[in-house]
Amino acid sequence: MFVKNVATRVNFRLSCSKVINLLTSLESNNLRISVANCKSELGFLFNSICQELKTIEYGINLQTCEYWRFDKPARASVLNMVSSTGYYGCFKCLQRDGGTVQTYPFNEENPDGPKRDSNLHKINIKNASNREESYGVKGECILSNLKYFNPINNTLIDAMHSIFYGVIKSLFVYWFDSPDRMKFSMKKYIFSLNKRLLGIRPPSFISNAPRSLYDLKNWRCRDFMNIESEKNRSK
Description:
By secondary structure, this protein is an alpha+beta fold. The chain is built from six helices and five strands. The strands form two sheets. A three-stranded mixed sheet has the order 1-2-5.
């Protein structure tokens, strides 16, 4: 989760921002902090961060750097929203879901929407005070007191779950785990493609060698990320 707390008219400066990385649970000096249920410990943890971000509002650039990052479960807790697998779990749009397994079928007529915006988010926060939640929003989040931070506009999409372990993994499943009769299936080419894949010698900045396509069900996020890195490198 990347937190930017400067006015939109101000040019981007890394010193005016904070990169926040928070694991679902953190153990240090016998202190365990869990963000799964947005417990009170999380508010205590963010007090110092919010104070420094509010200092930026006065035009003071901080020289110290703190880096935090949220995965999807932690992001939902910080933004005080339902989980990404829940109804209206996407913080960028208002698509509800498409069935009992919480899927979001591609809508050709409106693939990106209906989109959330700042005004609607404020309305959802107000409505959430009268009931359990409103379109996935449970209420104000921990960072709501910051002047320039907006939960919808200033929160980035999690690349790990949404891109590498989401879109790219889905494409691989369509290509290599679908029946041969499907037009997009490349199952009949898997032997030759797998041979070429295992013949790749990755550069030094990629720590893992490519894994076999026959072991696709055991691929981790990094395996899909390495494929994308190799593709960009070959351009």
